[in-house]
Amino acid sequence: DRGLHKHMKQVYLATTAAGVAPTLVTYGTLVSRAGKGRRAADARFYYGELLARGLRPDVPVLNALMNAEAKGPEPRRALAVLADLRARGLEPTVISYNSACEAWCRAGRPEKARELVAAMRRAGVAPNERTLSILVNGLCKAGRVEEALAAFRGAKREGGGGSAANEFVYATLIDACGKAGRLAEALELYRELRFDYAAAAGAGPAAAGSGPHRPPNVVVWTALLDAACRGGQLPLAFALLEEMMRCGVAPNAVTLTALFRGALRLGDPRAARQALDVLRAAGLDTKVAYTTLLSECSTSQEQETASQIIQALAENKIHQQELARAVAGGSPGVGDSSSSGDLGTEEVVA
């Protein structure tokens, strides 16, 4: 929150102006807070103040600064902090390496992150689940699905970061496989995740998919359902939706938007209407989905379907301006999101 960080800086300036000398711990907290708020410039300011007061930064402070820079607008600055840490005779920790890996991935160089993971192993620092998440996400975003899968398999073999329940990694890989047209591999990853859950519960792989074991979260289901749609398998997508709900996992707007969007891509307005019915029954906002469907129906001359949607629009009291935009082919929301194809996995990384 911008206001909170502005207030924090005002308090700091007032306190130091009154002659109070902050400690290293205080500066570490300020740098860390700035980093969590994605305010790299503020983190650099506090770090500069620390140095100006003659304090010597320790590993936690430098890690906090590195994390702030890795998430900032110039992620490569984090690499300079790592070099500074080493120059001071300090040993990088797994947190240090993770921030540097994230910096390379955000700079579009995931291969450098892979090299860094190899270097940390040589230095005797074991990668953790966060390391794998950063690396897999970076490789997938760069379209390097094969390398991401290889990194994942390697981590599982070595028992580092790839064990059960890292749902973000599974969701990222399933999403990437779906976008690459590799539905069979996406389904295999889903089955593997269920096996991991069963094994973690002590039930063994044979019990996967049955019994009281915790089901995957909504992000995993959404990625899998979208992969089925992209693979032209609408019946499978609806079957997955039913299984998801039987497992007690409630679909969200992103899940049903993926299903709705898939039906439209495959030219199946009946399936799109079915997705809308599920969306409405789940108590989710149908406005954007309705206007998108109306736009598709209008352009494909499906007048009967368009009439049904117009009636639904009226029942839902959607503003006429929204209707006009939809008829003109400029519907907001779902239509826009389909161009990005973002299923919401990025926020877990942060």
CATH class of the largest domain equals Mainly Alpha
Query: What would you report as the Rg, rounded to the nearest angstrom?
Result: 24 Å
Rounded average pLDDT: 80
Assembly category: single chain
Choose one word for the global shape. Answer: globular
Largest sheet, in brief, is:
none
CATH architecture of the largest domain: Alpha Horseshoe
Q: What percentage of the residues does DSSP assign to strands (E)?
A: under 5%
What is the number of helices?
Answer: 20
The CATH topology name of the largest domain reads Serine Threonine Protein Phosphatase 5, Tetratricopeptide repeat
Uncertain runs are 161-165, 204-212, 326-350
Task: Tell me the series of helices and strands, N- to C-terminal.
Answer: HHHHHHHHHHHHHHHHHHHH
Which class do the helix and strand fractions yield? mainly alpha
Beginning-to-end CA distance, first to last residue: 16 Å
Number of domains: 3
Helix content: over 70%
Question: CATH-wise, what's the superfamily of the largest domain?
Answer: Tetratricopeptide repeat domain
User: How many strand elements?
Assistant: 0
